[in-house]
Amino acid sequence: MTPHMPGDAVPRSVNWAAAVCLFAVVAMAAILAALCSGSVAVEPAQVIAALVHGGDDLMARIVLDLRLPRVLAGFTVGGLLALSGALMQVLLRNPLAEPYVLGISGGASAFALAAIALGLGSAWMHAGALAGALFSMFLVFALPRAGGNWDPLRVLLTGVVIAAGWGAVISFLLAVAPAAQVHGMLYWLMGDLGQARFSYWSLGLLGGAVILSLAMGRSLNLLVHGELQAAALGVSVAPVRGVVYFLASLTAAAAVMEAGSIGFVGLIIPHAVRLIVGADHRIVLPLCVLSGGTLLVIADALARTIVAPQQLPVGVLTAMLGVPAFLLLLRTMARAQRT
Predict the structure, then answer these.
(1) Is 97 helix (H, G, I), strand (E, B) or coil?
(2) Can you give the pTM of this predicted structure?
(3) Which residues contact 152 (CB under 8 A, 6 or more apart)?
């Protein structure tokens, strides 16, 4: 039996251009609000003037040098996580799948924390996070196939076990790390955009992943209902499955490399988008990117302002927002199924 994916039973006729425009306007409003927010308040007119004309005054430097790179990095990371979550749910045909379920975050965290514990620079930390994520990606892809054909349940179980193993490694690293390094390690584990900077590489990866995913939109819609049905309708299941796994893993790895472990974005955003526009992934995927970026930008703005001038890890805010949001989504989906 194919697990139910939220939105399957709620067919919608959606004007995709209008939906994308609406979500884009909300995203731009969130970015503007985030640029205005912080320990030093900046008026919207000052933000717009800095973005349009630049300048060397204090407010322009705060906007352009401090806030804009962080906001753009947050939007990119949120988009990567949401896209990865949507693809993972299609790949595993499991509504609870999300970017970190296959141990990718655990591998990235273990390697990055090892670099921090050794006192290495940020370049080594980012390289370690990427290497750990790719190593976990290889393990989860290779080990289940050694026992036969691809089985989503076997892949999921393998990922859960590998994630548990990485959790033990992380606990060991925290126990033996120098006391001076533990605070930074914990912040990275909780997800932090404080050290994140806008990366054209990450943005290019996000754009390329969206374009490639949209090209497979029809195949993804069919794959949700089972591989046999998809194959009967002309989908080349094995190549599509491999590409989806690679894209989902690589986008999750890039997000973890940039900002550490940030939970719930990749879980709740695909559900919320499907509930609004239905289950057509040709519409769902770009809206997931816009919604995930918007959510993380808002969460980071709150993390910078709630206890200003002190800053909270953004992962704490996404968890605090994500838990009630997911419970509300479950209740809404239950009502939709009864009607």
Answers:
(1) coil
(2) 0.88
(3) 91, 92, 93, 94
